[in-house]
Amino acid sequence: MSSESAPARSEPPGADPVSTTDRPRSGVTGRTRVAAVIGDPVEHSRSPRILNAAFAATGVDWVFTAFAVADGHAGEAVAAVRALGIAGMSVTMPHKAAVAEHLDDLDPAAATLGAVNCIAWDGERLVGHNTDGEGLVAALHADGLDPRDRSVVVLGAGGAARAAARALVRSGAADVGIWNRTADRARAAAELVGARAIEGPAEGPELAAALASADLLVNATPVGMGASGGIPVPPSLLHPGLYVSELIYSPLVTPLMSAAAEVGARTSNGLGMLVHQAAVAFRLWTGEEPPLEPMRTAAAAG
User: Fold this and answer.
1) Active site residues
2) pLDDT higher than threshold 90 for residue 5
3) Pair (142, 257) in one structural domain
């Protein structure tokens, strides 16, 4: 299943059109639309803060919350979207793959990757989208880096890595290499998105050669997340001409970012991607242009 066309503004069957002129005067009312993120765990999600800031800034009569949905219950969550007329749904782990089979259609990114992180209405049909890659590319542009004609190394071969690599290939990057500590996974991910696999260990000559000529390094592994520390590549492979994009945002400055900064490389954490993929969802759901500054402020507030 796939659909090349973007869905119309999110309007569940029977819902009133989105209004930014007849705005609520006293908070949530019977006309307020509900959107949410599902996952397990989900209590840590910054999405409610980011998207409620967007709704408030634009005056759209929506509210965003989080629902903890246990693994194995993705189908019931999608059924609830239909039954309750939930206006939009974000999807995080462990449901990104499982929700796909319960939707009416998938956009090209979601169909290729087999993963959905955003559900939007298109008339009476529910369409699954994958906005992660688009969010990354938008975040890079916002920070002054155009991936076109650049040489890129993506670390990791999971869902985030595949989404990032696919988007970078489609953005016109001259070369996109995927490295993973398990070579078979790197090869499978590269074949899926039209990139190339980088073979060998992190200390090996293949990754060293790829990084020596790279303009952009994207870390889509969990190495460096939380209090665990760690760095996914030898610091000696980093150089001043490299832009290091972390998809991690906790901590805000990872060991990889610190090591890159020490050699004069530019860095960014995962908040930019988080904000911009939420901005894509906001546009899909409401038809409005997302207010990026309030969304960035809300994301940075934690």
Assistant:
1) 96
2) no
3) yes
